[in-house]
Amino acid sequence: GESVGLHLPTLSVQEGDNSIINCAYSNSASDYFIWYKQESGKGPQFIIDIRSNMDKRQGQRVTVLLNKTVKHLSLQIAATQPGDSAVYFCAESISSNTGKLIFGQGTTLQVKP
Amino acid sequence: ETGVTQTPRHLVMGMTNKKSLKCEQHLGHNAMYWYKQSAKKPLELMFVYNFKEQTENNSVPSRFSPECPNSSHLFLHLHTLQPEDSALYLCASSQDRVTAMGDFGPGTRLLVL
């Protein structure tokens, strides 16, 4: 069946270092991808999205890379800060129905001071 | 801060109780969603409403009954739930079904005894 997965359940990084969170997806028909951040006690928060006609998109301190050949998505966070500590989810969908998202299990990012 | 609010934030109910979860969005969006987030499992889409019409029911048991009286409000009526229904129930909204979904509420933490 379809699945979206993250490679590591927990990632621990030093404050100031760059973080890379990975995600694999299995539905080759998916053409729209989102990264979310979820802090404790809160709902998921949109970080950045990318469509399949792109392989890279940059935001403020974040970059999403998409490799359609191997169905791989990654989120890079530059100069990781304590406020970046959270669970990060990737999600995939077909762009004609972006509300029907399939989520991965999440990676917990821990930032050490 | 999020424009999607949910009440109550926490709910404890017995298996024979009837309760309702409420979601309200102040963003002028036309699509609203219910998601279930269980421990150690990915977010699961439950229902999608677009312009007050239900467009998606992701094989959800009938003990969960959604209601969308207008584009700003979404309810989830609960009756005769099981302990395995204990989870965080998240409401989300987007401009419509084909627009990126970026707005989640904080969720209702439900415990079924």
If you had to describe this structure to a student in words, what would you say it looks like?
The complex is a heterodimer of chains A (113) and B (113). The model of chain A has no long low-confidence stretch (mean pLDDT 89). Chain A has no helices and 11 strands. In chain A, strands 2, 4, 5, 9, 10 and 11 form a 6-stranded mixed β-sheet that branches. By secondary structure, chain A is mostly beta strands. Chain B is an all-beta fold. In chain B, 0% of the residues lie in helices and 57% in strands. Chain B contains no helices and 11 strands. In chain B, the strands form 2 sheets. In chain B, strands 2, 4, 5, 6, 9, 10 and 11 form a 7-stranded mixed β-sheet that branches. In chain B, strands 1-3-8-7 form a 4-stranded antiparallel β-sheet, with no helix packed on it. Chain B is globular and about 35 Å long. The N and C termini of chain B lie far apart (32 Å). At the A-B interface, β4, β5 and β10 of A face β5, β9 and β10 of B.
What percent of residues of chain A adopt helix (DSSP H or I)? under 10%
If you average the pLDDT of chain A, what whole number results?
A: 89
Counted beta strands of chain B: 11
Number of strands of chain A: 11
What is the helix tally of chain B? 0
Q: List low-confidence stretches of chain A.
A: none
Largest sheet of chain B: 7 strands, mixed
Number of helices of chain A: 0
Instruction: Show unreliable segments of chain B.
Output: none
Q: What sequence of helices (H) and strands (E) makes up the elements of chain A?
A: EEEEEEEEEEE
Largest beta-sheet details of chain A: 6 strands, mixed
Using only C-alpha atoms, the radius of gyration of chain A works out to 13 Å
Approximate shape of chain A: globular
Mean pLDDT of chain B: 92
Q: Which class of secondary structure composition applies to the elements of chain B?
A: mainly beta
Largest interface: A-B, 25 and 27 residues
Terminal residue distance of chain B = 32 Å
Task: Classify the helix fraction of chain B into a percent range.
Answer: under 10%
Q: DSSP strand (E) fraction of chain B?
A: over 45%
Proportion of beta-strand residues of chain A: over 45%
